[in-house]
Amino acid sequence: MAMSLDLAFVRSQFPAFKEPSLAGQAFFDNAGGSYACQAVIDHLNQYYRETKLQPYHLHPAAQKAGAQMDLAHERLASYLNVNTSEVHLGPSTSQNTYVLAQAFGKILKAGDEIIVTNQDHEANIGVWRSLQGRGVVIKEWRVDPQTGSLDIKDLVALFSEQTKLLAFTHCSNIVAEINPVADICKLAKAANVATVVDGVSFAGHGLPDVDALGADIYLFSLYKAYGTHLGVMVIRDAMADKLGNQAHYFNKAYRHKWFVPAGPDHAQVAASRGVLDYFDALHDHHFEATDSAAEKAKRVRSLMHDAEQVLLSKLLRFVDQHPKLILLGPADPAKRAATVSVIPTEQSPQELAQKLVDQSIICGAGHFYAVRLLEAMGVANTGVVRLSFVHYTNAEEIDQLMAALDKALS
């Protein structure tokens, strides 16, 4: 029997739900950034009060600061099922992909090929396309213009002996379809092609087992997974060795500095372990104790997914059947994450979003950096209204959203 999520416990872990200025506001802009959990806020506060100095230096406070940063790397690695040396914390996923592109640019030669999709956020498309100026050939794995989906058969036809890298998304931030990452990475590996997976739109719904996925590089944004404004970048050790140190030459001995050339935000890195504190608390509240972080991650991911699916099914039915809304992406909740993008047929997305905001619905409208996807699907440059939620959303907020949509569309 599946365990039911205790929403009262969950929401007690997020100060935003106790904030008077947000009372009555239903939060449906989680794909742009989730609420931070209490543990992260507490760790950030503590760092600034007790250890706001240069970490790793000789003073005990400096040693404590460094130990907190190390612990954040260790705990993230345990939940992602990778080695601690493989976790890198940079300022954002966009910045992390830029550093990666510069690194690959040093080892690729003219004529080498990179495959990108037109389904991704521009952060995982534009940086690779920029390497064309160095003679790298860019191939595009294109979506079906009607559905926004990617077909693996189309990918296989793009592989050649010159293909060196495949960059794709775990889950689109617009159509929200979850791609079969493990299958795709297996095909790429068989073709001797490295993989970079953008997991930004997936990770907030449960941290993945990166080892099981088989990706050489996996990226996501911690601030969309209840944490600080950092980008998490998993680079498997073998791939890191190929790319080499991208930071100051004298930092070669420090693997965590290789792909963060600007240097880490000490406080945010230290505080990021609060996300895992929350996941631990969520696990222990619902399940019997276990020492396996991988098992905790699996259980928590399932718990969050099951809670979201119930609400997602209800919202998708409403949207898919509404005569004045066009749903982007699959109507089957089992195929997608809890991000629902819609196009109103009788007003602009911006007009609809404003009417929703006026009814205490926190949401947004636009292209959300997925311009190439929307262009491929023939969507006007006004974009979509995006309604995104996570496991802490409750049924009353879904009802509030649907009532607000009905009124705004009438």
UniProtKB/TrEMBL annotation:
Record flagged with keyword Acetylation: no
Keyword list, A-Z: Aminotransferase, Pyridoxal phosphate, Transferase
GO molecular function list: transaminase activity
Domain Aminotransferase class V: 27-401
Gene3D superfamilies, alphabetized: Aspartate Aminotransferase, domain 1 (3.90.1150.10), Type I PLP-dependent aspartate aminotransferase-like (Major domain) (3.40.640.10)
Any single Pfam family the record assigns to this protein: Aminotran_5
Keyword Transmembrane helix: no
Record's protein name: Aminotransferase class V-fold PLP-dependent enzyme
Organism (species): Marinomonas arctica
Lineage: Bacteria, Pseudomonadati, Pseudomonadota, Gammaproteobacteria, Oceanospirillales
